[in-house]
Amino acid sequence: EASRHKFGFIQDKVVEALVSIGFMSEAAARNWCEKTVNPYAICIDDFVRLVKEYMDNQAPNHHLVFLVDEMGQYIGEDSNLMLNLQTLTEDLGVACRGKVWIIVTSQQDIDSVTKVKGNDFSKIQGRFDTRLSLSSANVDEVIRKRILAKGLTAEQTLRLTYEQKATIIKNLITFHDRVEKKLYADADDFSAVYPFIPYQFNLLGDVLTSIRTHGATGKHLSEGERSMLALFQESAKTVMDKCIGPLVPFNMFYDALYNFLDHSHKVVIDRAWENSHVNPEKREDCFTVNVLKVLFMIKYVNQVESNLENITTLMIPDIDTDRIALRAEVERALDVLVRQKFVEREGDLYVFLTNEEQEISREIDKMPVEMSDVISKVAQLIFEEAYKERRYRYPAHSGRYSFAFNQLIDDYVYKGNQSNDISVHVLTPNAAVSNEEMALRMMSGQGQEVLVVLPNDVSFLNELRSALKIKNYLLRESMASNTAQRFAKI
């Protein structure tokens, strides 16, 4: 027994032993040894015969089930393997009279996985009378039973907690977009799903799909219950030792996803963690980095808009969280990420930037734009789009008298010299003028003009500056491309 694994190296000794005890001749022993080292093979008929002999020795009502996982991947494009399965199923059914069953599984629709050339897979499906299609639409039910099942005491405690804080929880978990999100329906739902929130099941499924679609991970990341189970299980472990109250914020799912992600995407998060502005104290659990993780996961997901309110909701760590304070913390984190070019702001939305997008963003940021160009753009938007009138008409209903007026913005005259008696003067936050009413009245009294004071918010000026930088960048790239084409022709 200690040396049987060495059979291939001790055949001479085996032959000698067989001959010495008179069991075989030397020629027969040599022939037997050669056949013994050949791969073991069994045909379908022999296998069916062995199974039938086994069933004949069992009780009359005894049944046998063979479970075969991932049959679609096993068959692949080999038509012989498909025919073997078909023959085996038929022969077992005939020989054992329905007492032996074969159950096969496939992760996806078996017709889409198996691509057997010249054969319709429906032929073999006909041999399997019972077919069950198990989709991931109700993955939350699987997770509730396999991971989140709780004891009687825990269920009662959670129900009582929800009844006491139902209003607080409803006001805490809110989304500002048009897509409906599943929230806690009642105390029983809260007890069954805690420490997760119902919307996380569908949203995480969309995240997995988007990650596969946009190449952030390999195709090996399954799209069904198994991946979801693993992610929810790993996330639940992080809060399993805490008292009732903590929730699983959406950024925790990133840690469970980390090993599946492509390096080009992981490196962005890793670089943010090492950035002295993003994580000055080099904390393992950095809030600003956690916000970036959330933005990465929802980058390609249409189910949730990446605005400030929604990001705040995704980051809620406890049912007793002060949402106003959390919102302010999220806003500060987003400002840091925008300044460090990990995130780009598009109106009210914040967008995660990949490595390539960050490089382009840095190039755009280097483009020179004068403040006069920004003010000129503001003037164009106001006097060409918002207010297109060139003359003041009095009275308004008849317009009997018509007066031309100057168009000014922050002391800049729009469209050349204007020498009219009256003016419309727009003041942006860039103007060094106090917004106090008395100061504005004094300024207005110096000339015959109407002052229009824009809100003291420079965000729209910054967005216009960014838009002009993008325009200049595209113009530069277009010119470079045209030059390269001309040189190529030469």
- Main beta sheet strand tally, sense and closure: 5 strands, mixed
Order of helices and strands: HHHEHHEHHHHHHHHHHHHEEHHEEEEHEH
The percent range for strand residues is 5-15%
What's the average pLDDT? 79
> Helicity level, as a percent range?
40-55%
Number of strands: 9
State the shape: elongated
Structural class designation: alpha/beta
Distance between the termini: 80 Å
Radius of gyration: 36 Å
Low-pLDDT ranges: 113-118
Total number of helices: 21
Brief digest:
This protein has 21 helices and nine strands. It has helices spanning 11-20, 26-36, 44-56, 71-75, 79-96, 110-113, 122-125, 139-146, 152-172, 187-193, 199-213, 225-237, 252-257, 263-274, 287-297, 308-314, 323-339, 355-365, 371-386, 437-445, 459-489, and strands spanning 64-68, 100-104, 343-346, 349-352, 391-394, 401-409, 412-413, 422-427, 449-453. The termini are far apart.
Description:
Strand 3 and strand 4 (349-352) form a beta hairpin. The longest helix is centred in the last third of the chain and has 31 residues, at 459-489. This protein is of the alpha/beta class and 490 residues long. The protein has helices spanning 11-20, 26-36, 44-56, 71-75, 79-96, 110-113, 122-125, 139-146, 152-172, 187-193, 199-213, 225-237, 252-257, 263-274, 287-297, 308-314, 323-339, 355-365, 371-386, 437-445, 459-489; strands at residues 64-68, 100-104, 343-346, 349-352, 391-394, 401-409, 412-413, 422-427, 449-453. Helix 9 (152-172) packs across helix 10 (187-193), helix 16 packs across helix 17 (323-339) and helix 19 (371-386) packs across helix 21 (459-489).
